[in-house]
Amino acid sequence: MTPITKLVGYPFIGISRHALQKVLLGHLEDDDVELGARLERLDTDEGEGITELRFRGQSEVVRARAVIGADGRRSIVRKKVLAAEERNCDWALTWWALADIPEPATPKGEFRMSYSTKQAIYYGEVEEGVTMWSFTCWRDGEIERDPELRAGRALKELEGWPEEVRNVVRNTPPNKIIEVYVGDSPLQWTTWSKQPGVSLMGDAAHSMLPTLAMGVTTALQDAAALTKCIDNADTPLMEALKEYENARRVPSATLQLISRVAMVFIENVLCG
Ligand SMILES: Cc1cc2nc3c(=O)[nH]c(=O)nc-3n(C[C@H](O)[C@H](O)[C@H](O)COP(=O)(O)OP(=O)(O)OC[C@H]3O[C@@H](n4cnc5c(N)ncnc54)[C@H](O)[C@@H]3O)c2cc1C
Asked: Is the CATH number 3.40.1050.10 carried by domain 37-87+187-270?
């Protein structure tokens, strides 16, 4: 059993976005998903109980009784129905990569987590021949655009770490290393939408720091809860949406909070 499995009580499974999307799409009909459609505007007519959606480059207006905004951390649905003035908080800098890294061999199907001075890094194989690694720390300043300098910066952050961990980064082609600011959205304990018939899901509802690596799991739990609520034919649709939000708001806001606390804990207690 790996340390992380011991810590959380279940295995930490690595899967790439590409592979996960393939699995999810495999469960849908061909015309359930329209790729490339970019939502630009939505307007709700509360009297009629209809929301109109307008997509870039399309003259047709889609009219819906219920809309779930699952459009990620910079959700325009959230801006419209919850908090037009809200600002995302970019707290920390993450370095991550997806690459063929032959050495050191990483655990298949399970992630490995390592703590050292000020950060925690996790790494593992997410697809045959593709390893993912990522670590996050409180930093500010400019994003480094030059791949070689970026790789150097990542390695400098890992000074004093076990050689195995440094080798994961050292053996990654520099152009595969990504440096990006990450953060979370303000916690919403009481509502996800001020407009009836519109709700949110996943990062649009509750983006969190990647400290616990729980963003995808939480989004999938939202999807499962929504399915359960709207599958009940006895519950009117608007009530089902409320039930869904009530079931998911507090657990997901709690995880957002724990992810923030975990970030401080890892830096100052575990690694301090
Ligand atoms: C560096 C980093 C590392 C992470 N590591 C992990 C990890 O190890 N484990 C984990 O569980 N989570 C991790 N996360 C978090 C995880 O990526 C997110 O929680 C997860 O992707 C949320 O899924 P989502 O579907 O809600 O949003 P997204 O994955 O952001 O998907 C939103 C979708 O909406 C589309 N979209 C956006 N705007 C529009 C629009 N106007 N019209 C139409 N479509 C639109 C986007 O193109 C995208 O396809 C990490 C995040 C970061 C930044």
From this structure: no
